[in-house]
Amino acid sequence: FVGALDLNASGEELPNPRHIRIVGDYAFITSNLYDAFGVVNISNPASPTYVTRIRTWGETPNYLDSAYGLDIVGDYAYITSITAKSLTIIDISTPTSPSLVSYVMGAAYALNNPLGVVVIGNYAYIACAQEVSIPATVTTQAMTEVKAETATGDGTVTDLGTSDPTQHGHCWSTSPSPTIADDKTELGPKTATGAFTSSLTELTPKTLYYCRAYATNIAGTGYGTEVTFTTRARVLGNPHIDQLIYQHVERIDR
């Protein structure tokens, strides 16, 4: 036995430490219980001393929520946090004053229950204890056959994601960024990548619409880029004359 440090001392707590890395005279520690990353001076192994910590408990966002995995490469510490589903990068070039560089967090990054992390070159390799869930990737093409009350939407599923989509189609609204909570087509399951077409109906004439293709799988709903279109005016009167007028106007528009 050489020396020890109480990590439960008031104001210097780093309880439930999960991982530790040693660089020179300093030990870097993740604290799962305190949502923290701490630094301890070990230049005198017989009497290590607390230096500082970054704690995000109670903050928004809490990017170190249940801090766990840790790797250090050069001047940077890479930390995975279980509850935050995050990877955080801390600048430790000055060990007595570490500072946040950046983080990615949330299910959108497929970091479900991230535990260990190893950084090699330009990449961080993260071990997750739960299945990674990735939404489908979708693109939206320009609208075609736009009429007074109908239009045709085209889209493409370029990646199915974690699992085959159980539903796909187009959603639209008179407000930007439409979602599946708005008007939508439902074309059913999608078991392979590729193009699809939707028929939009019951539209309002002379109205600007926003539209996105979508696909929903176990990870959630992926949307394509937003496109806009404006429905044509309704032509009233004799239906045969209306059709001739409409075709004439359509040719002029083109």
UniProtKB/TrEMBL annotation:
**Membrane-spanning parts:** none
Q: Where is the composition biased (Polar residues)?
A: 153-178
| Pfam families referenced in this protein's UniProt entry, alphabetically | LVIVD
Residues of the region (Disordered) are: 153-179
What's this protein's name? Fibronectin type-III domain-containing protein
Q: Which organism is it from?
A: marine sediment metagenome
